[in-house]
Specification:
Elements: H1 5-17, E1 37-41, H2 46-56, E2 66-72, E3 86-90, H3 104-113, E4 117-120, H4 127-135, E5 140-144, H5 149-152, E6 155-157, H6 165-176
Parallel strand pairs: 1-2, 1-4, 2-3, 4-5, 5-6
Length: 180
């Protein structure tokens, strides 16, 4: 996964001055009830959108779960049916020099929801999602593996190029304790 040097420097700087405590430990057991609210960061790639729409069940969201979705304005058209979920979007004006979300109002709007879990569905590095996950205090943060993501997420999935995306997404639902 290719990570820009300016983002690495930004994350190092943010880590130096952050008073964040270590992420809480997560215990996964058979007796666990799973999560009740999940924020999904939707990918910008059109080819991933078809699989993601099915996975997140955007047209008919998972019942009994509070679902939130976040994506860029550019990719919003790939996800046409989002009436029954909280949808957060950002545009280029909401990003800073490091391509991370700088909009305090958007960050606060997401923080108020206090999601149990956040899931980054980007299979490639995305600075906006990585730093958003860094700033949020959800106990369970799931995303695809990279050097940076190992420091930010509580669970990372190693993506093999020849594997189907669907298998990773059902693994994510399983980790969340979502009945599907």
């Amino acid at each position: 996964m290719d990570i820009p040097i300016r983002f690495k420097i930004y994350l190092f700087w943010k880590n130096l001055f952050s008073k964040k405590e270590d992420s809480p430990h997560v215990k996964i057991t058979k007796e666990g009830r799973g999560v009740r609210s999940v924020l999904f960061f939707l990918p910008e790639k059109k080819e991933d959108a078809k699989v993601i729409n099915y996975f997140v069940k955007v047209e008919n969201p998972l019942s009994d779960y509070e679902i939130g979705l976040i994506c860029s304005d550019k990719s919003k058209s790939f996800y046409p049916h989002v009436e029954n979920v909280s949808l957060f979007t950002y545009n280029d004006n909401d990003l800073n020099y490091f391509n991370t979300i700088k909009s305090v109002s958007l960050l606060n709007e997401i923080k108020i929801k206090n999601y149990d879990a956040i899931v980054d569905l980007n299979t490639n590095f995305c600075a906006a999602s990585s730093m958003l996950f860094f700033d949020l205090d959800a106990p369970l943060k799931i995303g695809f593996d990279s050097l940076i993501n190992r420091k930010i997420y509580t669970i990372t999935l190693e993506r093999k190029e020849n594997a189907f995306l669907e298998s990773y997404f059902s693994k994510i639902l399983s980790l969340l304790g979502v009945k599907f």
